Amino acid sequence: MILLVDIGNSRLKWTQAEAGVLKPTIFMDYRQADFPERLREFWLSIPAPKQVAMASVSENALTILLVDMARALWPGVELIMPQSSQTAFDVKNAYTEPEKLGVDRWLALQAAHRYYPGDTCVVDCGTAITIDFIESDGRHLGGLISPGLFLMKKSLADNTAALPFSEDQADTSLAIVTAAAINNGTLLAAAGLVEAALARQPKAYQLVLSGGDGDMLARHLAVPSIVDGGLVFKGLLNYCRNENAS
Ligand SMILES: Nc1ncnc2c1ncn2[C@@H]1O[C@H](COP(=O)(O)OP(=O)(O)OP(=O)(O)O)[C@@H](O)[C@H]1O
Ligand SMILES: CC(C)(CO)[C@@H](O)C(=O)NCCC(=O)O
Ligand SMILES: [K+]
Question: Active-site residues (predicted)?
């Protein structure tokens, strides 16, 4: 078994890979006080992994906590922590400073290149919305970063007197009450961003979505898309030896 860990900006996501097949993802809020205990209990209940692969775009302290926990639970376990680089698994990073590209974006690009070959636009709709374009030959063209839906709504609530934070259902129609106006406005901002990014390219790209709001965004886009919430995990798996072994 290989333990795969994606430390995002708001949540920790982890899963087990057995013979290359991913189990359901466990999502955890790492800001809760009892998070380390809850995670340790979870990890005590699973078979000892041969390898632990981690991707982190979060604070170092959290990464260190998780590394220490894995080492304490499974002494001698092999830890794999990929970093963004110039090229990996036939993907060429477009950034002028390749190591500055978020490792979540880098891993998602590698997974997209492997599992969704072709000219592809990879969108992660999480804390941030990231949009990256990759050509069928593995050349990354670059990307875009915007606040995600939660942050858009939170910044409205935090910076105005009259606007509340609302998590009601959203669509892209015109609203006649405040909460719907915010939910629909921010959803249309996200959908419009993705549609505009695609429309401004000189050719067509297939669209692959991931992230906590990926499903919701997919339902409201005017263009077809594939939703795959496992892109970062699949990218991590590339870096593991014997990925097909149990
Ligand atoms: N407390 C919360 N903070 C932020 N987002 C939340 C929270 N609760 C629910 N969400 C939802 O999850 C979305 C974030 O998705 P996701 O879980 O992929 O983000 P993440 O864990 O921070 O990962 P990443 O950093 O990779 O984007 C938000 O836009 C929001 O809709
Ligand atoms: C953009 C986020 C926050 C998305 O999770 C992450 O990929 C990150 O911290 N990136 C570093 C900056 C960059 O990718 O240009
Ligand atoms: K992300």
Answer: 104 (proton acceptor)
